[in-house]
Amino acid sequence: MTLQPHRSHAETTVCSIYFDTPEGVSFLEKAASDFRKTKYRVRWYADGAGQPLSVPAFIEIKEKHGAARRKFRCPLPMTGAELARTSFRDPSLTGLFQRHSPPGAETPPASLRPVLELRYLRRRYHHPIFPDSFCLDENIRCVRTHPAAAPSGSERPLPLAVFEQKGPSREAVPLLQALPRFGARRAALSKYFLIMLQLLPHSRHS
């Protein structure tokens, strides 16, 4: 049996605004190692043409300390359409994580500001036997930046796609174990970090 398109969300555009401090704490954590990483983002979903869906937007915090991983998510009182129209200089985005920090997460830095909006096409799959779900992310690109944080992007996609298995299984399910033969490589990957390297090609971390 092969993977089959997800029953209800086979194809969507994932839209995320990543937040960081003026010093780039999240970016520098990833540049230093994969041991400790914290990501701050606002996420909403759109159709294949980029039109926001009528579902809530979310605030998300992802924390990684060694092998321990935690993800916090809560709905925002803003729609995806509103977020897509909101300037990165708009005061409503200042202090967003202080006003809507998910319960249980570490206290976000007070100086967080929007840095860039990242979008990609996500195709979701399921398998009739395995409980895990599977995602293929393509056309990963930056559509706008905060002028004080990074130069504007050309919307040039990253030269890669990301395939992810999500669920209780610790290892790749059997039908995926042959992927390395076709050039796939297992890696701890940060889309935000790679886009920042693309925007800042002369950074010492490039």
UniProtKB/TrEMBL annotation:
Gene3D superfamilies: VTC, catalytic tunnel domain. One of its GO terms (biological process) is polyphosphate biosynthetic process. Coiled coil: none annotated. Residues 8-193 form the VTC domain. It holds the Pfam family VTC. This is VTC domain-containing protein.
